[in-house]
Amino acid sequence: MEITGYVSDLTAPLHEDVAYRANDAIARAARNRAEIEQAKGILMAFRGLDADQAFLAITRYSQHHNQKVSSLARALVYACGSTTTLHLTINAICPTTNAA
Question: What total of structural domains would you count in the chain?
């Protein structure tokens, strides 16, 4: 019995795909981290919170509203374009009664 056919080495394309996905994930994580840090800074400035309290406020809101922390942080950062929207967003995430 004889078997004939072709062999294709897919190692290089597979490695390229894995490298692309890893680089993309790292870039997304860096962007998300920057936005989360900015959002924490906004809450720290407007509510007088420390970094841990600001992060806790963001994560608590995120969990209760089934929203990703990165999406919530991005919304807070973008809300800086409008004073009204910014204050409404801050009040939703961290009401003044829970700020201390």
Answer: 1
